[in-house]
Design a protein that fits this description.
The protein is 84% helix and 0% strand. It is built from eight helices and no strands. The radius of gyration is 18 Å and the shape is elongated. It starts with a helix and ends with a helix.
Length: 156
Amino acid sequence: MTPFDKWLAVVLTTLNPLTGRGAAIPLGIGLGLPVLWVCIASGISNFILAALLILCIDWFEHIPRIKQYIERKRSKKITKFIEGKGLLYTVILGPFVLGTFTVVLMFKALGAERKRMILYSLISAAILTPVIAWISPFLLHLLKDYENLLRTFVQG
């Protein structure tokens, strides 16, 4: 595998909504790429896709049917949560539970402001990427254990 293929695998894994940075950073480290550059590439690609997703949702939100649906689903408690500190906490902690793109879709659909969502996505990328890199050796160790378990299961 060439170095370009390794970097391409890291970026494409980051852009995949099902895997994201949580799989891309351990993959890059496992492929022998420098941790700092894997974090930078993964963080930038994640932020760019989140920002594009926010902008696209904002464009779709102007369609009358979608706007009516959003207004029906939004309650006073949710609006207060989104306008307060809840959005910041959710954008930072939510990717661990739901994934970055799910959090972006959910909160943008609930009416969060575009500028705040982009800012919080940038903050999330800056905070979570090093944290994921820090726990990646543990994740790689777990993957090795699961690989051995899967190999023994498949071989019978």
